[in-house]
Amino acid sequence: MPSNPSQLRVDGLTALQLAELRAAIATTGRDDITTLNNANLGGGKVGEPALLTVLITLGPSVIAAVALWVSKQKKGRSKNLKYARVDPNGAMESFELNESSYYEGESPSTAIQAFLEKKLGKDVTGKG
Question: Given this model, what pLDDT does residue 38 score?
C-alpha cells in the first residue's frame, strides 16, 4: 500500500453508527479510523446527538468491511451520510451511496464493495 494512502471520509454518523463501523473495521485486524471534531454537523432537533465525521484509511479488507457495514444499515439510518474520497494530496471528491448506486442482482455487500472500489480508485485494491 502507498505510504500515504487514500482515505474515505464519512460525515453524519451517530455515535451508534460509529461504534458499529469501528467494530466492522476491527474484524480486519486494522484500526484505520479517525474521528474528526466537526462542529458544523449538529444534531438538528432538540435532544438529538451531534453527528460525527470519520476518516478511514483505505485498503481492500477495510473496503470490504465498510461495504458490509453499509449493507447492514437500515435504509433510514444511512440516507443522510455523506461520503468523500480524500486523496493523499488532500483533494476531496464527494459521492453518494444509495441503492441506485450499485447493481441489483448481486449481494448488497458485494455490489457496494465493487462500487466503493470503483469510486475510491486503483490505489486501494492492492494487498491490505
Answer: 60
